[in-house]
Amino acid sequence: MYKRNVMILTNPVAAKKNVSINTVTYEWAPPVQNQALARQYMQMLPKEKQPVAGSEGAQYRKKQLAKQLPAHDQDPSKC
């Protein structure tokens, strides 16, 4: 079964200035240890396709995932 990788990315510049910390919660992020690399990957995606929690991009990703990995392929009870 597929487990999504949820990641909260923090903008390091805002964190260093001790102002309100700028964070973004993605419904999925690449499974890497380096947060800067994950942030760079997400910034390379078009804004409308970034899987930010609750956004149009997150819905788009779910729709694409349903096409690529249909529920009946993952769970025999849904056949």
UniProtKB/TrEMBL annotation:
Keywords: Repeat. It comes from Pan troglodytes (Chimpanzee). InterPro entries: PET_domain (IPR010442), Pk/Esn/Tes (IPR047120). The keyword Lipid metabolism does not apply. Coiled coil: none annotated. Pfam families: PET. This is TES isoform 8. PANTHER family: LIM DOMAIN-CONTAINING PROTEIN (PTHR24211), TESTIN (PTHR24211:SF1). Residues 7-79 form the PET domain.
